[in-house]
Design goal:
50% of the residues lie in helices and 17% in strands. With 278 residues, the chain is α+β, with helices and mostly antiparallel strands. It has 2 domains: 142 residues, no CATH class; 130 residues, Alpha-D-Glucose-1,6-Bisphosphate, Chain A, domain 4. The strands form 2 sheets. Strands 1, 2, 6, 7 and 8 form a 5-stranded antiparallel beta sheet that branches. Strands 3-4-5 form a 3-stranded antiparallel beta sheet, with helices on one face. Strand 4 and strand 5 form a beta hairpin. Helix 1 packs antiparallel against helix 2 and helix 7 packs across helix 9. The termini are far apart.
């Protein structure tokens, strides 16, 4: 018996279609709590059904895994992982709303349907089309529609009551922490070039972090520090220090209707300034 044929079940296909319709149209058009929860219900119904059909014999395991993962994903515990992905330019978004747990009711219905539904007799070509389209639908839900935007001429300053040397040390510290989170949660490891002070990811194609060498910079009055997503001036002496944000980039979701520039600055303050002030 070919369990994969269960993917031809009309209710499974309908749940995937609803997921795509909601994520690519309804959310963007209405953007309310109902459309947000609709994706949770459709996804929790379709995803374990899909995985169980592709990997026969692991039905209970997949449904249990999706249950635990959803609970974890909707909690504050996953925030460090989301921060790590966003720092390297992978736009991952979710909203903490414990009422979303109501969507877990879709799991037992999906489990019941999977075990009771009949095996269909579609041709392999049509079955593969369903499988591929379903996989794309699940991936698309984690990458909301939008684009990377650049904002220049910001010139917003942040002042600290510690020395420039301490500021540089703190900048390096939180960058190393970000790299460690990426190594712990990502699908690979960041490589460090000791000559340039740069952490690379994905076989040196992506710059993850750039460590500042204070000994080579201490004679400069102003340090221009550029990363992949921000440029800033670092100034100060032994009594205090400052960062002037010059430009910043951020992935802006299509559904976001606020001030894009202020959203980018807000993210910079959360991802950088907050970590420096710790």
């Amino acid at each position: 018996m070919n369990i994969k044929q269960k993917l031809a079940n009309p209710l499974f296909i309908a749940s995937v279609a609803l997921l795509v319709l909601n994520d690519w149209y309804l959310k963007q058009t209405f953007s309310n709590s109902f459309t947000g929860k609709l994706s949770d219900f459709a996804g929790l119904f379709a995803l374990p059904f899909f995985l169980s059909a592709l990997f026969p014999g692991k039905v209970k395991w997949w449904y249990s895994f999706i249950l635990v993962f959803f609970v974890f994903w909707k909690s504050a515990l996953v925030q460090p992982l989301i921060d790590a992905f966003n720092r390297i330019g992978l736009p991952v978004h979710r909203t903490i709303d414990f009422t979303d747990y109501a969507a877990l009711i879709a799991l037992p219905f999906s489990y019941y349907l999977f075990n009771r539904s009949k095996v269909y007799s579609l041709k392999p070509a049509f079955l593969n089309i369903i499988a591929c389209c379903s996989a794309l639908a699940f991936v698309a839900t984690s990458m909301p529609p939008g684009k990377m935007e650049s904002f220049n001429n910001i010139d917003k300053e942040y002042h600290f009551d510690f020395s420039r040397h301490e500021l540089i040390q703190r900048i390096n510290k939180f960058q190393v922490e970000a790299v460690n989170k990426l190594n712990n949660y990502g699908n690979g490891k960041a490589d460090f070039n000791s000559q340039t002070g740069v952490f690379y990811y994905n076989k040196q194609k992506d710059t993850v972090a750039v460590l500042l060498d204070y000994e080579n910079l201490k004679s400069q009055d102003t340090i221009l520090f550029k990363t992949t997503y921000a440029a800033m001036d670092i100034t100060g002496d032994e009594k205090g220090s400052s960062i002037k944000l010059l430009s910043v980039k951020l992935f802006i979701r299509k559904s976001f209707n606020g001030d894009h520039k202020q959203e980018a600055i807000k993210f910079f303050e959360y991802a950088v300034i907050r970590n420096i002030r710790k």
